[in-house]
Amino acid sequence: MDPSLDPSMDLKVLASWLLVLGYAAAIVTLVVRGARRNKSVADYAVGTVAFSPVAVGLALAASTTSAATFIINPGLVAYFGLAAAFALCVILPVSMGVSLVVLTKGFRKYGGSVKALTLSQWVGKRFGSRAFAVFFAVLSLLLVTFIVMILVGLTKVLAASLALPEVPVLAALVAFSFGYMMFGGANSMVYTNTIQAVIMIVVAFLLLGSGAEHLVDGIGGLVDRLAAIDPNLATLYNPASPLFRDSFEVVFCTIVVGAAIACQPHIITKSLLLKEEADVNRYLVAGVAVQTLFFMVVLVGLFARLEFPDLELLGVAISPDSVVSTYLVTEFPPMVGVVVFLGLISAGMSTLEGLIQSLSVTLSNDLVANVHDAVTGRELPERFLFLLNRAVIAALAALSFGLAWWQLVDPALSVIIFAQLGVYAYFAAAFVPVLFGTFLDRVPLAAVASAAVAALVVHYGVYYTGDAWFPYYMGTAVDNPGISTALGIVAAVVVGGLISSFKALGRYRYGK
Question: Which of 224, 249, 336, 383 has the greatest CB tally within 10 Å of its CB?
């Protein structure tokens, strides 16, 4: 039956509109409450409230598992089957969770001692270099690609559920999200993220439960039905896919990338919101446990593939970025569908808030202020920085809208490829400075700076030139950024380790 002729669709659209308006009103209320406490960039960045470690852990889980997990990645699972599910639902969360636990305590301990607000400021103070802080502040612009991915995912879901064209929805979404983040900051973000996380928990169970009919014959039955559509969908490695062909892509690259994902500023800096060292363990337990549940949501892609075996609806192809929105409007009854719809919005907005907050503070505090101070020898007034932060958010809104419009009309397979090219480069460069800065005492600036540059050079070098000397993996129509990132991270660890070892050997030989 054509969904447009289904009378329940009108009810679903009306309920979605009411839900969006109610959600927007609730967000504005919380933002107004939090904004009253903001008097400086520091207040905006890390807040003035002593938040519960469980609340911060929920905020971590919500901002870690974004629209990528709830909206975009299930589309890849629908297209490429168990191989994608194994990488994104098993390997990635395990690697990321271990890395987060290992890095958090050391990062928070040093960050709290020097009052660091951002990752750029942390590395600058840790290695005693303003230039290094500026370098990472400039690199943080790569995170705009992640913002674009979330905007595209949310636009797809909102447009499908509200029965509106995508571009006007995108414009309204950008205006609303960036507008309220000009004022909210950490004080309101932890409240909104906590509420969003609770909604996402409910929706995660609803989405996973929606596949119950496909599991009546057990997991073996589900695998057999996938194999009947395409044998490549039912194997742990899918040689026909551009992203999950073998153990190198599915296991090795995913482990390396997963370990470095924690180095994103809106993730690793969440621990700086904790006021007491004793809160860290409860924060990590809550955050890792809930984000593990959220990562399981990508399995809905398997259910969607069984519902749309040809990846078409009414003769129209379903793109990877549209799989979840199509599944939502066709498979759920109206009242359940709008609850799921709210969860998908929450999944995107929670990470979007964290990215806008961390990126705007980084650009205003670590880029503009640092350059001004170095050139003039004078510090910018705190009030000016506070207003500058809002101007930066407005500029980011304009940039993000333009790039998101481009990705709506002309994506390369999926917007996630565009996002990975940017955000993967950032955390590949950040991994060695955070790792060495957390666990090693006497780390030379030359080691971590060279490692960061090596990560970028190898990542982009392999991605854009790898088809000439790495043709099996990089010579296809859609190249895998995970491969170039993993190789970049390995190169960074080798370069940083060698320079650190040479410097340490020199100190030893000359008694320094």
Answer: 249
CA 110 to CA 122: how far, in whole Å? Answer: 8
Three-state DSSP class for 264?
Answer: coil
**Is residue 35 a contact partner of residue 185, using CB atoms and an 8 Å limit?**
yes
Q: Which of 448, 472, 451, 447 is nearest to 462 (CA)?
A: 472
Is the pLDDT assigned to residue 492 strictly greater than 90? yes
Q: Which residue has the tokens 């309220």?
A: 180
How many Cβ atoms from other residues are within 10 Å of residue 314's Cβ?
8
Ordered structural domains, the chain, with CATH: 3-26+43-411 (1.10.4160)
90 pLDDT higher than 90: yes
pLDDT in tens, 157-180: 888 888 889 999 999 999 998 988
Count of CB atoms situated within 10 Å of the CB of 399? 14
- What average pLDDT does the segment 179-183 reach? 81
* CA proximity to 272, closest of 78, 492, 59, 469: 59
Q: What is the C-alpha radius of gyration for the chain, rounded to an integer number of angstroms?
A: 23
- pLDDT reading at 490 higher than 50: yes
- Residue 312 pairs in a beta bridge with 317
Check: CB of residue 327 under 8 Å from CB of residue 307: yes
The model's confidence at residue 475, banded by pLDDT at 50, 70 and 90, is: confident
Query: What is the rounded CA–CA span in Å between residue 223 and residue 219?
Result: 6
Tell me: pLDDT of 346 over 90.
no
CA 142 – CA 36 distance, rounded (Å): 31
Longest dimension (CA), the chain: 82
What token pair was written down for 321?
Answer: 């970025």
183, pLDDT greater than 80: no
Helix (H) or strand (E) segment spanning residue 313: strand 312-313
Instruction: Indicate the helix (H) or strand (E) that contains 312.
Output: strand 312-313
**Tell me: the pLDDT tens digits for 123-140?**
888 898 999 999 999 999
Q: Is there a contact between 3 and 330 (Cβ–Cβ < 8 Å)?
A: yes
What is the average pLDDT score of the chain?
84
Token code pair at residue 12: 């679903």
Buried b (16+ CB within 10 A) or exposed e, 244-283: bbeeebbbbbbbbbbbbbbbbbbbbbbbbbbeeeebbeeb
d(CA 24, CA 18): 10
Q: Find all residues with CB under 8 Å of 458, minimum gap 6, and list them.
A: 484, 487, 488, 491, 492
Helix (H, G, I), strand (E, B) or coil at 440: coil
